[in-house]
Design a protein that fits this description.
single chain, alpha+beta, Arylamine N-acetyltransferase fold, Arylamine_NAT_domain_sf, Papain-like_cys_pep_sf, Arylamine N-acetyltransferase
Length: 288
Amino acid sequence: MFFNLICRAEMHRHHPLRPHLAERVLERLGFSAPPAVDPEGLALVYRQWCRHIPFDNILKRIQTASSSHRPLPGAEPDDFFETWLQVGTGGTCWAGNGALCSLLQALGFPVALGISMMVPSSLAEPAPDMPKHGTVAVVFDSAPPLIVDPTMLHGQPIPLGLSNRPDPLWGGHNRLVAGQWHLDWKPLSRPRVYCRIERLDATSADFAYWHEYSRDLSRFNQGVIIRLARPDRIDGIVKGNRVSRGLNGVETSRPLSRQELLGSLVEEFGISEALAAQLPPDELDAAV
């Protein structure tokens, strides 16, 4: 069933991490020793990532507003992790998934880069005609691929199979439609969507191309967005609002002043105060 979706994960090696950097990342994530290279070890790494490394567009927002043509933040995994260790930021999908792939690769997991699209949950509306999302899968022998995505922050690996049930907090069930897997998830302050998996044998060059392609087209260029997974909720900032979703699937939202937004970034999400101060104001038509 998965043969046409994925070739052996070892076929495409992502950018390697410096060994000492991988050790520093594990230590910050709460590990005193490398995790076992098995599904349980993978679940531990992904859980700690979801709780400690945010999905956010802070660096990209600052760079986009300055019209800089430098390489996009997090384009190199070493840069992604060094920046997280120093100022607390994560990244958007191409950067975050590329970084997680490199970390898992350094730990010995059979990991693969994925290319996907976000499509409406009704599956009736037109879908995008080009990739908009990178993802990561781990494949143990002949078992179904396990999706570990730093954007969706499901908290636990999601196997591609029909036995999953939707979770009010995380989403995570998936279905096979016209021969393609659609993984359900619920962004904060947005309708449910499906992550339609196109392929799980992407190369580093594929990721670099689509990451750069997102420079001026991303929905994350107009205003701050950040989210982290807690044990019992997902916390975030979207469109100038502080948003949380609990175990019952109910979201709460309240608007933030500029001062409150910057304070929340620092106090609740661990972002450097000096970096947060560099953020330009959200644009009024922010579509994040």
